[in-house]
Amino acid sequence: EMDPRILPEMSAKVAFLSREMRPEEEKPLKAVPASAVVSRGEQSAVFVVEGERVVDRPVRTGRRMDTMVEVLEGIGAGDRVVLQPGSDLESGSRVRISEK
Fold first, then answer.
1. How far apart are CA 68 and CA 22, in angstroms?
2. Per-residue pLDDT tens for 75-100?
3. Buried-most residue among 13, 16, 66, 73 (CB within 10 A)?
4. Which residues are registered as beta bridge partners of 33?
5. Residue 33 C-alpha from the chain's centroid
6. Is the dihedral of CA 3, 17, 65, 53 positive or negative?
């Protein structure tokens, strides 16, 4: 029986896995846009919003996936990170959150 959501002339883009997924690839992961990660020598960090201020928090990053970077340690689910921190942003800076 045809799915009523599929109409004539509709197309869909699909991708097929070329191999079985490894167990570590199936578990949820934390990732942030690559633009949120700042490098300080060997150390990577993100700016996390805490109240009205931002604090830089060291993170350990994993693999890069297109525009995102996996974060292995340093932030938790629900943390709000600055997506594109300017070079003048410092830990402790006051910020105003614009809610879109």
1. 20
2. 988 899 998 888 888 899 898 877 66
3. 73
4. 68
5. 4
6. positive
6: tokens are 């599929």
CA gap 56, 97 in Å, rounded: 17
Beta bridge partners of 59: 44
**Residue where the block lists tokens 């633009």:** 35
Gap between the terminal Cα atoms of the chain: 42
Query: Which phi and psi angles does 36 have, rounded to 5°?
Result: -80, -15
* Both structure tokens of 37: 């990660």
d(CA 27, CA 98): 32
24: enclosing H helix or E strand: helix 23-26
pLDDT tens, residue by residue, 32-46? 999 999 988 889 999
